[in-house]
Design brief:
299 residues, alpha+beta, DNA polymerase, domain 1, OB fold (Dihydrolipoamide Acetyltransferase, E2P), 8-stranded mixed β-sheet, two-stranded antiparallel sheet, 9 helices, 10 strands, extended
Length: 299
């Protein structure tokens, strides 16, 4: 039976805040149906951002967090993108660009004349610097979270912020488990505790945390295999032994075959003293002689 201490990990994700029928479907496509699935849905990679005070402090192609003030909204002509012209502390401009119908959300997130912290990749289009679809916009730098952001595998209907929030809830519900790794090995490898390792694996690139989780999986598989072998040994026996007294000869023959004894025709004494290989050669010689005699008669 499963220990009660592990029960929270097997609760359904539908009990988490913010999950409804529409969100449960894409989670199901990723096989994320229980809290343990979310906790072990580790990031594929991490985006490392650097906080800068001015645009000139960053390079094109770099992931940055920079304070900006919106100065102008530029509505698209035709099917072009919506742009917000924003200014940094030094007076340099950057175009915050959105494709699609995102003008209303962009105007709400970036009121004219108010400073906002913007996180995204700094690119250049012609002579104009731009950030296409900023990842985060916050009134304070702390609202953007860590400068190292995990990137998870997604399915249609899921976004990175939504999945990050669900993973955070699953990690908060994870219980403190007693240590099962031998203390000497744990100290030698300098591995964190299980719950700490799981949290660190979602926060950044921590090789020791990943190694700890990989060792846990290997140890669990080996213990499960050991239990299966022990169960098989406890039920081991000779097939047919229980039927010896019920159905006479057939059951006895089955038991004899299981013990390696020859039965039926195979149990008769061998009257030919020659080895089997010599018998096959003699048979081939007799067959070849018959073929020659048939050929001679045909002539």
């Amino acid at each position: 039976m499963r220990p009660d201490l592990l029960t929270p990990l097997f609760h359904s994700v539908e009990g988490l805040k913010g999950i409804g029928p529409q969100l449960a479907k894409p989670l199901g496509k990723l096989a994320l149906t229980r809290l343990r699935d979310l906790a072990y849905h580790l990031p594929d990679r991490f985006v490392h951002r650097r906080a800068v005070a001015r645009l000139d402090d960053a390079s094109v192609g770099e992931q940055i967090v920079v304070p900006l003030s919106a100065r102008e909204y530029r509505n698209p002509t035709g099917r072009g993108p919506f742009r917000v012209m924003a200014e940094d502390a030094a007076g340099d401009y950057v175009a915050l660009t959105w494709f699609g119908r995102n003008a209303g959300w962009a105007k709400k997130s970036l009121p004219l004349g108010e400073r906002r912290w913007v996180a995204g990749r700094l690119d250049q289009f012609g002579q104009q610097r731009q950030i296409v679809h900023p990842d985060h916009i916050g009134a304070e730098a702390g609202a953007l979270g860590s400068l190292c952001e995990p990137v998870y595998a997604l399915s249609e209907g899921l976004t990175q912020p939504r999945l990050q929030a669900l993973v955070h809830q699953a990690l908060a519900a994870a219980p403190e488990l007693p240590e099962w790794i031998e203390p000497g090995l744990l100290d030698r490898m300098q591995w964190p505790a299980w719950r700490d390792a799981l949290a660190l694996a979602h926060r950044g690139e921590h090789p020791s945390a990943r190694d700890r989780l990989a060792y846990d999986e290997l140890l669990a598989n080996q213990l499960a295999l050991m239990l299966v072998r022990r169960s098989n040994r406890s039920r081991a026996g000779i097939p047919g032994r229980r039927r010896l007294g019920q159905d006479g000869g057939r059951a006895r023959g089955d038991a004899d075959r299981c013990r390696g004894r020859r039965t039926g025709r195979a149990a008769r004494p061998d009257r030919n003293p020659r080895p089997p290989a010599l018998r096959h050669l003699a048979a081939d010689g007799r067959a070849l002689g018959r073929q020659h005699r048939v050929a001679d008669r045909a002539r």
